[in-house]
């Protein structure tokens, strides 16, 4: 790992930890892989996506929006290194690069700035809290592993 990447990962994790008390906690998982380490998909990210994206039916079930099923057990194969339908030049999740991940742009509401379209996700719902976004970003920065 390069020194710059190490600093970025450390900063991202510190920000996620510092902001961890914001919001009502809905959709927050085990807080960093259950042992205070790096966030994991199963314990930290998936609960956020299930509560805010898949449970509503938009990105779950048999006909998920944009063909992106974010249900438990489906998220990784539908997002990591998979081109976005709205902006095929960007992957939905680009491991270690949250700013190059279209899903991050959509949940931040910054998709227009990278050439994307549509509204901020979750569409029609409350935006994710900054601590939830930071947790997703930290998981991606850590390599977006299927853990």
Overview of the molecule:
The chain has 147 residues and is mainly alpha-helical. It has one domain. It is built from 5 helices and no strands. It has helices at 3-18, 41-54, 75-79, 102-108, 130-141. α1 (3-18) packs antiparallel against α5. It is globular. The model is unreliable at 1-30 (pLDDT under 50).
Summarize it.
The protein is mainly α and 147 residues long. Helix content is 37%, strand content 0%.
Kindly list the characteristics that best describe this protein.
147 residues, mainly alpha, 37% helix
**Radius of gyration from the CA trace?**
14 Å
Number of domains: 1
Q: What is the percentage of strand-forming residues?
A: under 5%
Shape: globular
Topology pattern, helix = H, strand = E: HHHHH
Unreliable spans are: 1-30
- Average pLDDT rating: 83
Helix content: 25-40%
Gap between N and C termini: 20 Å
Largest sheet: none
Count of DSSP-assigned helices: 5
- The count of β-strands is 0
Q: Helix/strand-derived class? A: mainly alpha
SSE layout and pairing:
Layout: H1 3-18, H2 41-54, H3 75-79, H4 102-108, H5 130-141
């Amino acid at each position: 790992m390069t020194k710059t990447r190490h600093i970025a990962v450390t900063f991202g994790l510190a920000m996620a930890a510092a902001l961890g008390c914001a919001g009502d906690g809905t959709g927050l998982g085990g807080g960093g892989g259950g042992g205070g380490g790096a966030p994991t998909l199963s314990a930290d990210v998936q609960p956020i996506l299930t509560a805010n994206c898949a449970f509503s039916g938009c990105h779950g079930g048999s006909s998920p929006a944009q063909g992106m099923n974010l249900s438990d057990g489906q998220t990784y194969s539908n997002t990591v290194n998979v081109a976005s339908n709205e902006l095929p030049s960007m992957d939905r999740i680009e491991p270690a690069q949250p700013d190059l991940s279209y899903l991050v742009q959509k949940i931040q509401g910054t998709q227009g700035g990278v050439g994307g379209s549509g509204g901020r996700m979750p569409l029609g719902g409350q935006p994710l809290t900054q601590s939830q976004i930071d947790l997703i970003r930290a998981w991606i920065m850590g390599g977006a592993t299927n853990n």
